[in-house]
């Protein structure tokens, strides 16, 4: 399940290639889109900091409750992403299916907040690495995150196996042409 971006499409293809399956269903969901930054959408961080001040921009980007002008707060992003997760992904997990979620940082941060039962203060400090898989096992009604910090030459902070880390390398190779 993912938002339709070139990277998300590539990730679904890599997964298909890696599992040697002919077809893996891909569900596109706007609820997993990146947080909307409103009037700041499309501006780079430096331009925005020059216009509004570095501290204000940091507050908009990292606050849980505060939203940029005509944009979404992380709390609002959580509302749609977690609702989608509960309504569409959890039922599949309950039925025994394996689900891969490919999404943007803030929608993933929101889902992780739900899964790991993080506070609003903890989630704003959560850093995610682009393209590094996180594995959760759903067992007896609980989500259990697998993996632990490892060296830079190993699988990655949240990767379960070195094979999963290979997906990152493949993504990097494929993304160079984008």
TrEMBL record:
Site feature location: Transition state stabilizer: 104
Domain of life, source organism: Eukaryota
Residue sites binding substrate per the record: 34-37, 45, 61-62
Enzyme nomenclature, EC number: 5.4.2.11
Cross-referenced InterPro entries: His_Pase_superF_clade-1 (IPR013078), His_PPase_superfam (IPR029033), Phosphogly_mut1 (IPR005952)
Biological process terms in GO annotation: glycolytic process
Pfam families for the chain: His_Phos_1
Keywords: Glycolysis, Isomerase
Single annotated GO MF: phosphoglycerate mutase activity
Alphabetized PANTHER family for the sequence: PHOSPHOGLYCERATE MUTASE (PTHR11931)
Family the UniProt entry places it in: Belongs to the phosphoglycerate mutase family. BPG-dependent PGAM subfamily.
Name of the molecule in the record: phosphoglycerate mutase (2,3-diphosphoglycerate-dependent)
Organism: Sesamum calycinum
Lineage per the UniProt record: Eukaryota, Viridiplantae, Streptophyta, Embryophyta, Tracheophyta
